[in-house]
Write a structure and sequence with these properties.
The protein has 12 helices and 12 strands. By secondary structure, it is α/β, with parallel strands linked by helices. A 6-stranded mixed β-sheet has the order 3-2-1-4-6-5, with helices on both faces. Strands 7-8-11-10-9-12 form a 6-stranded antiparallel β-sheet.
Length: about 350
Amino acid sequence: MQSPRPRLSPAIADVRRAVRISLADLVPAPSSETDAPLVLVALSGGPDSLALAAATAFEAQRAGLRAGAVIIDHGLQPEATDAAAIAEHYALVLGLEPVWVRKVTVGNDGGPEAAARSARYEALDAAAAEAGASAVLLGHTLDDQAETVLLGLARGSGATSLQGMPAVAGLYRRPLLGIRRESTEQFCEDSGLVAWNDPQNDDRRFARVRVRRTVLPVMEQGIGPGIVEALARTAEALREDSDALDHFAEEIAEDLAEIVEAGIALPVSALAANPAALRQRLIRLAVQSEFHVSLSRTQTLEVARLVTDWHGQGPLDLPGVSVERREGLIVFTATDAGELTGVHPTVSH
């Protein structure tokens, strides 16, 4: 089927340009004899993903790429299956190939939003692997980024949450992070595409909906316009700083880390000599790389106290890891305490 040819409005031009930039490094060389890379659009049928799908169909064809779609039916609402069928229809009309509809089972772990997200990404991973896709495109917009930053601020989990969503994370790409939601809606209107409006987007039981419908409008009214853009700029700046600090921590860790029986160790003197941001990254990096455990900020700070506030306290029991200060080293060793969720010093002080 041939893609419809809408008039080139500003919204269509902006979304297409964003997709073109995102896919630029995947474009094959003119002399390439290999199969054209395949990109898959995660298509829900909402305005953001529908605009992304239409723009990708257009840009991929011009760039010598193949473009398909994966539609996830979560089965959480009566309308969801109908919406999936409509999204499939649009994907075929736009000329996307292959097009898959994947039904998923949503569990209960971490709340409904987190469970649906986990099921969705698992299905997207499987589809990408099956198709041999070079990238999966997600329809998150500038507004989604601002909402993510505010939710991260509310959690108080530091720069990691405040830096929002990355434009590229492994296989996943978010071409529309610089595009406002109103532009994707205008894209669909200008293209004659009727998007599905998910009822959950108006369900105020969800924190993200309350941020979208109440918090951000109040901020715009009370502080002035431009809040969404400012939050997105903050996320970008924090991501740049965080990436640089992570890079420095990895370089330092290669020189400092010592292998010990059943674990790894870092010198106290070197940890003490580094700023807190690097010291805490070195601690998290040691635990993550050696034991595949992600420490919370509270847990990380408890380990850091073995360096900065040492009073002879005994080992800390972390999830799957025991940490102690011994002979000028912070020693991390594996334990069987994989189910622990907090920090429990074995000696009080």
